[in-house]
Amino acid sequence: MFDAVQAEIAHRREVGPAATPSKNTGVFTGRICCGACGKNYQRKTRTYKSGTSYKFWRCWSACTGNGNPCRGHNLRETLLEHACADMLGTQGFDPVHVAEQVVMIEAFEHQLTFHLADGTMTPVGLTSEGRLA
């Protein structure tokens, strides 16, 4: 039993957060960075009274209970998926393609800047409500 546990710990250390399915991770984990404060965005889930839920990403600084000092928007995961598909020119959202092509997404108040594997940076505008412009 001890050896099995040690093997699992080593596997999780090697693979990272994706090795722990109970963690709230996705293809955007570790890729979205706040352009104002430099902190990573965290994945959150909001559930309506009806039971319907959705995923969104929020700057870590805004998750600490001190308001939203860097004024970053909550970014719905569906918005990020649409932005990636449009920017990469794919028919739909493909997490494998995003993992291969998108190195980082910098989130600013009025735009997202996609840093791609080929070294290019592509800005995508946001409205004042945090939707795609």
Structure notes:
- The protein has 133 residues and is of the alpha+beta class.
- It has one domain.
- 25% of the residues lie in helices and 27% in strands.
- It has three helices and seven strands; from the N terminus they run αββββααβββ.
- It has helices at 2-15, 77-88, 95-101, and strands spanning 32-34, 41-47, 53-59, 75-76, 102-107, 111-116, 121-125.
- The protein has a four-stranded mixed β-sheet with strand order 1-5-6-7. A three-stranded antiparallel β-sheet has the order 2-3-4.
- It starts with a helix and ends in an 8-residue tail after the last strand.
- The mean pLDDT is 86.
Spell out the blueprint of helices and strands.
Elements: H1 2-15, E1 32-34, E2 41-47, E3 53-59, E4 75-76, H2 77-88, H3 95-101, E5 102-107, E6 111-116, E7 121-125
Parallel strand pairs: 1-5
Antiparallel strand pairs: 2-3, 3-4, 5-6, 6-7
Brief synopsis:
The protein is of the alpha+beta class and 133 residues long. The protein contains three helices and seven strands, in the order H-E-E-E-E-H-H-E-E-E.
Main sheet overview: 4 strands, mixed
Mean pLDDT: 86
Number of domains: 1
CA-based gyration radius: 16 Å
Query: Which class of secondary structure composition applies to the elements?
Result: alpha+beta
Q: Provide the succession of SSEs.
A: HEEEEHHEEE
Shape: globular
Alpha-carbon distance between the two ends? 54 Å
User: How many DSSP E strands?
Assistant: 7
Strand order of the largest sheet: 1-5-6-7
Q: Residue ranges: pLDDT <50 for 5 or more in a row?
A: none
Helix run count: 3
- Approximate helicity band: 10-25%
Fraction of residues in β-strands: 25-35%
